[in-house]
Design a protein that fits this description.
The protein is of the alpha/beta class. The protein contains 21 helices and 15 strands.
C-alpha cells in the first residue's frame, strides 16, 4: 500500500519528460527553423503553447498516460514526419501551398521528386528524429497532482491557448469567422492542426481562385488584335520586383553603392538598356498594384481588372506560350490572387511554398526555372518572373555570408537621415540596403542570362511598389501606409533591355537611347499593359498609345495614388511633399 502511495506522488522527472514528449513533434522542428535563422520566434512560441494542450487529459487521467502517449506518438508523431521531411528537403515550412503543388503535380512528377531527394542524409535524419521520440516515450510517466493544482494548471494552459480568440473578438472587434481563422493560424505550427488547417486553407483559397478564373475565362477575346512582328521567333520577359524603392538604388543616385551590378551592366550595354527615372506605382500594395498593371484597370476604373482580359490573356491570344516563375508565397489569403494570375499562363513554377512570408527565401530560386524556360523550343514565349525582392523582413532577403552584409554602419547614409537613426533603426536601414544590393545581383543576373541566351526580344523589370525605411523626415516611418503616403512608398525602378536583333527590327526604339526625354517622362505603372503592348508590337481596340511611355504620342497624366474605392482616397502623387 505504501508503494502505491509513493508511486502516486508528484515527480518533477515525470512532468519534464512527459511535457517534452508531447511538445517534441511540433517544437523540435520549430526550434530548428528558428535556430537556422529561417524565420522568427513566433512559430516556436505557438508550437509550444498548443502542444501543452495535450497535457490536460494526462493531468486528469494519469492512469491512462501510457495509452494516450502511445496513440499520440503513433498518430501525431507519424504525421509530424511530413513537415519534418518537407523542411529537410526544401528548406521551407509546410503550408497550404504544398497541397496546391501536390494537386498540380501528377504521380510521375511526385515519384521523380521523391527519388531525386531521397538520400542517406534524409534517412539518417529520420532515424535520429524517430529515435529521440521513442526515447522520450519510454520516459513518459503519470503526473500526479492535487486537484486544485491540476485544475489551475489546466485552466492556465487553456486560457493562454485561447487568448487569441478573446483578443481578436473582444479587443479587435473581429467577426466570428475572422476570429476563428486567427486562432487556426496561431495553431498552424502544431501537428496535427498544421495539416488540417493547411488543407482547409488550401480548399478555401482554391475555391476563391477558381471562381475568379471562371469569370476570366468567360470574357471575350480582345477585338481586332494585330501583331506587327508576324511569326518571327521571340522571347519577351517581364520581371516584377517587390518593395524596392528606386530612392535606395545607386542607379538612381542614392549615395550608397547598392546597385553595382546593374550599373556595370548599363556601362556594357549603353545602346540596349534604358533606365526610366520618374516611374511610380498607383498603390503601395502588391495585389492592388498588379490588379492594375497586369490589366486594363486604373485608379479611376479599378473594377476593369475583372471586366477585361489580362496581360496574360492578351499574350496567349497573340500566340505566345506563356510562363510564370514566382518566388512569392503560392497560396495565402493575399497571395491567392497572385496564383490566380499565374494560372492564366500555360506553365507555372512555384518556388516558395513556405508557411511564413517573413521566412528566409532567396530570389536565386528563380534562376534554374528561367534557364529551363529559355531553353523551351516554343518560338514565341512570354515569361513573367515574380521576385520576393526586398520584402520584409529585409534580413531574410539575402544570404548570411559576410560578403552580402555590405552595409553595417552609418557610412554613406545621408547625414540628415543618419542623425535620426538609433541602433535598432540603423540595423533595419542597413538590412534594407543589403536587400537592395542582393536584389541588384539577382535582377542583373536575369538580364545577363537573357542576353546570353541570344533570344530575340526584350526584358522589362519594375518593382510593384516602394518601401519607406526611415527615409522621409522625421525618419520614423517603416513600411507602407496608404493613409499616410510618402513619395518613397511609390517610387519604383523601371528598366528595359532590348536585344540587338529586336532593336534592328524596331528602329524606332533607338529613340529611347538617343533622346533622354523618354527616360524622364512621368509615368505610373497602372498603364503598364499599354507600354507592354507597344513594346511587343500589339494593337487592338483597347490599346491606347498615349498611355505608353515609349510611344512618341505619350501624354503625361495626373498620377493618382491611393484607394480608388474611397471617395476622398485619391491623391496627386506629384503634390506630395518630398
Amino acid at each position: 500500500m505504501s508503494n502505491q502511495i509513493e508511486n502516486r506522488q508528484f515527480k518533477w522527472s515525470s512532468l519534464i519528460f512527459t511535457t517534452l514528449f508531447f511538445c517534441y513533434f511540433s517544437v523540435a522542428l520549430q526550434l530548428v527553423i528558428f535556430c537556422t535563422g529561417h524565420t522568427n520566434v513566433n512559430g516556436l512560441r505557438d508550437a509550444f503553447i498548443y502542444s501543452l494542450i495535450w497535457l490536460v487529459p494526462i493531468l486528469f487521467f494519469p492512469n491512462y498516460t501510457r495509452k494516450i502517449a502511445t496513440v499520440f506518438g503513433i498518430i501525431v508523431g507519424g504525421l509530424s514526419l511530413i513537415p519534418v521531411l518537407y523542411f529537410t528537403i526544401y528548406g521551407q515550412e509546410f503550408s497550404q501551398s504544398v497541397f496546391f503543388i501536390m494537386a498540380e503535380s501528377n504521380f510521375a512528377e511526385s515519384k521523380e521528386y521523391i527519388l531525386q531527394y531521397m538520400s542517406l542524409k534524409i534517412v539518417i535524419i529520420l532515424i535520429i528524429y524517430i529515435a529521440i521520440g521513442v526515447f522520450l516515450w519510454t520516459r513518459v510517466k503519470p503526473i500526479y497532482l492535487k486537484n486544485p493544482i491540476k485544475y489551475s494548471i489546466s485552466l492556465l494552459i487553456l486560457l493562454y491557448a485561447l487568448a487569441p480568440l478573446g483578443i481578436s473578438y473582444f479587443i479587435k472587434q473581429s467577426d466570428v469567422n475572422k476570429t476563428v481563422r486567427h486562432l487556426a493560424t496561431r495553431m498552424e505550427t502544431t501537428v496535427p492542426w498544421q495539416l488540417f488547417h493547411s488543407y482547409n486553407e488550401y480548399r478555401r483559397q482554391l475555391l476563391a481562385m477558381e471562381s475568379i478564373l471562371a469569370k476570366y475565362d468567360s470574357l471575350p477575346p480582345l477585338a481586332n488584335l494585330k501583331d506587327s512582328n508576324g511569326d518571327s521567333p521571340r522571347t519577351l520577359v517581364l520581371v516584377i520586383g517587390e518593395s524596392t524603392t528606386h530612392n535606395r538604388m545607386g542607379l538612381y543616385d542614392y549615395p550608397r553603392d547598392t546597385t553595382p551590378e546593374m550599373e556595370r551592366f548599363r556601362r556594357e550595354n549603353p545602346n540596349n538598356l534604358v533606365i526610366f527615372n520618374d516611374v511610380v506605382s498607383p498603390r503601395p500594395y502588391t495585389i492592388e498594384v498588379l490588379q492594375q498593371a497586369l490589366t486594363f484597370a486604373d485608379e479611376k476604373h479599378p473594377d476593369l481588372n475583372l471586366e477585361q482580359p489580362s496581360l496574360m490573356h492578351l499574350m496567349k491570344q497573340a500566340g505566345y506560350k506563356t510562363f510564370w516563375i514566382t518566388n512569392q508565397q503560392t497560396m495565402t489569403k493575399r497571395n491567392t490572387m497572385l496564383t490566380m494570375f499565374s494560372k492564366q499562363t500555360d506553365k507555372q513554377y512555384y518556388m516558395n511554398n513556405d508557411r511564413n512570408q517573413s521566412a528566409r527565401q532567396y530570389d536565386t530560386n528563380v534562376f534554374d526555372p528561367f534557364k529551363e524556360v529559355l531553353a523551351d523550343p516554343a518560338e514565341k514565349k512570354f515569361i513573367v518572373i515574380h521576385l520576393l525582392g526586398t520584402h520584409m523582413k529585409y534580413e531574410f532577403r539575402y544570404p548570411t555570408e559576410e560578403k552580402y552584409n555590405r552595409f553595417n554602419d552609418a557610412s554613406g547614409i545621408p547625414a540628415a537621415v543618419a542623425t535620426n537613426l538609433d541602433d535598432n533603426k540603423l540595423s533595419t536601414y542597413n538590412s534594407y540596403d543589403n536587400a537592395v544590393a542582393f536584389n541588384d545581383y539577382v535582377t542583373t543576373q536575369l538580364f545577363t542570362m537573357f542576353k546570353n541566351s541570344h533570344d530575340n526580344g526584350f526584358m522589362l523589370y519594375f518593382s510593384d511598389h516602394g518601401e519607406d525605411v526611415y527615409e522621409t523626415p522625421p525618419h520614423n516611418i517603416l513600411g507602407r501606409n496608404e493613409k499616410a503616403p510618402t513619395k518613397t512608398m511609390y517610387t519604383v525602378p523601371f528598366i528595359l533591355w532590348q536585344s540587338p536583333e529586336w532593336l534592328k527590327a524596331h528602329p524606332d526604339n533607338h529613340a529611347l537611347y538617343q533622346d533622354k526625354s523618354y527616360s524622364e517622362r512621368k509615368y505610373s505603372t497602372q498603364d503598364l499593359i499599354h507600354t507592354w503592348s507597344d513594346l511587343a508590337g500589339l494593337s487592338y481596340d483597347l490599346y491606347d498609345p498615349t498611355k505608353s511611355i515609349i510611344n512618341q504620342n505619350y501624354q503625361e497624366r495626373t498620377r493618382w495614388i491611393g484607394d480608388p474605392y474611397d471617395k476622398s482616397g485619391l491623391i496627386d502623387y506629384d503634390k506630395l511633399k518630398r
